Amino acid sequence: MAIIEVKVPQLSESVAEATLLDWHKKEGEAVSRDENLIDIETDKVVLELPAPADGVLVKIVKANRASVGSGDVIAQIDTEAKAGASSSPSKTQSPPEKAKAAPAVMPAAQKIAAEKGIDTSKVQGTGRDSRVTKGDVLSQPEKRPLQQPPAPVNTDALLSGRPEQRVPMSRLRQRVAERLVQSQSTAAILTTFNEVNMAPVMEMRKKYQERFEKEHGTRLGFMSFFVKAAVHALKRYPVVNASIDGNDIVYHGYFDVGVAVGSPRGLVVPILRDADRMSFAEIEKKIGDFGKKAQDGKLAIEDLTGGTFSISNGGVFGSMLSTPIINPPQSAILGVHATKDRAVVENGQIVVRPINYLALSYDHRIIDGREAVLFLVSIKDALEDPSRIILEI
After folding, report:
1. What is the rounded CA–CA span in Å between residue 240 and residue 308?
2. Using 50, 70 and 90 to split pLDDT, how confident is the model at 93?
3. CA geometry: angle at 150 spanning 147 and 152, to 5°?
4. What is the dihedral of CA 43, 44, 45, 46, to 10 degrees?
5. Which of 40, 106, 121, 254 has its CA 20 to 30 A from that of 192?
6. The predicted structure's pLDDT at residue 102
7. Annotated catalytic sites, by residue?
8. Can you tell me the distance from the alpha carbon of 225 to that of 240, in angstroms, rounded to the nearest whole number?
9. From residue 141, how far is each of 24, 32, 147, 195 by CA, in Å?
10. How deeply is 50 buried, as exposed, middle or buried, from its count of CB atoms within 10 A (0-12, 13-18, 19+)?
11. Can you tell me the distance from the alpha carbon of 162 to that of 149, in angstroms, rounded to the nearest whole number?
């Protein structure tokens, strides 16, 4: 018997505990090296815990939903046992079926299998010595997502009679709640509003959409314009890009913009690093990549760490107006909403224009109303004349 302990990997310094989600294997089942045993949920991301070696999962030390810390032993694998073995067998058992040896897997195939949620032990290998190749994995249908979303609330049941349904908060939801309360209790939050005529952006987007997609392989959306306009304004008013540390104001010489993205686990805010150095295409591709990662539970801790300013686009859900809450330790957040045709006055005439209401929530402890208003006006000017973004004027 050769027992190997399965331990929780080292979590980041800001994460004290994590929660074990559903085990993908049962005691007595064969496991393959690098096969995902269980997903571990922190307050930021969901981590996969691969098997450290081939063998049999003989003991599960920590059950589903258990709280764990870095280095905790959660299971044991016997590298010499056969499938059906367990650390605590019943008194009388019929001999277990001989475990089928797990096929050898090529590294590239293992990586793709992990991304698609495919159990390589059940794939027929066509390579040398029956090894599972990249082609073998690509030919398999994609399985369920590696990360399962929280159990949905049974709406039909809630609407009949007077029942109640109790659903535990995920660690992410708990962390979001904690940070939002922290933000409102520690910052002097104030929100200022403005409206922007999106016609120039919409015309530019319509004119170049086809060429842009052909050239860069991604659609030209509106978020890249909002990010570019925000960075344009942050350069003019650096205090909006700053943060408070004790009695000090920390001015950041870089622009790491957080973009709020929905996921099955709740709202997450991945970071566009050095957004000032990114092209429109790079921003669109990165945001699209973040959205896919969020849906698949693939966001890494480094994707969500840091940030000097945030943008929340409630417009994708139809929001007309909102007062976004600052994401500490940042000092401001821009709220973007749905663009709708509205009657406005231009040169004494009532005309119809596609209008978007912008909201800037800011920490009044370091950002005065003047800077906040001028910052938002700078964004408005950049969007109503996109050439300002290109020429940086």
Report:
1. 9
2. very low
3. 135
4. 0
5. 254
6. 53
7. 364, 368
8. 19
9. 18, 20, 17, 48
10. middle
11. 26
